[in-house]
Amino acid sequence: MTVPSDEELHELAGRVGERLREARHRLVTAESCTGGWIAKTVTDLPGSSDWFDCGMVAYSYEAKQAMLGVNPHTLEQEGAVSRETAVEMVSGALVHSGASVAVAVTGIAGPGGGTEDKPVGTVWIAWKGRGGYPRAELFQFAGNREAVRRQTVAAALAGLDAL
Fold this sequence. Notes:
It contains six helices and five strands; from the N terminus they run αβαβαααβββα. By secondary structure, it is α/β, with parallel strands linked by helices. Helix 2 (37-43) links the parallel strand 1 (27-31) and strand 2.
């Protein structure tokens, strides 16, 4: 994936917004490694209040547990950057909001924090509609911290566009 520009992110968010507005859905974001960048991209768009409910930035283990209901056992056994954590984050975002569609991201943006099993650029993204089953996908992005985060925002929005 190439590193998207702000313009490309806003274009993608606009497409997502139109689809959500037409379907009368509202979006919630649960973000770790992006630090609220998905919510910022969405709310940069005029009229996003028609389809955006809220964004939750849960960076620490404690915040993931308190805000999103992530099980402490999941974090201890699988780690914050795992399919299981992403799925619990996306499900918790729906439980703790009035939204009908959710996206969650958790990953290692770098430059530190990577391991042999989970190198810098490892990101899990999960999507879920209220009443549906979550879908999660593993990504391995390249580049510096900003590049990893930009690619994560784009992949998260693209996944919403495909719902």
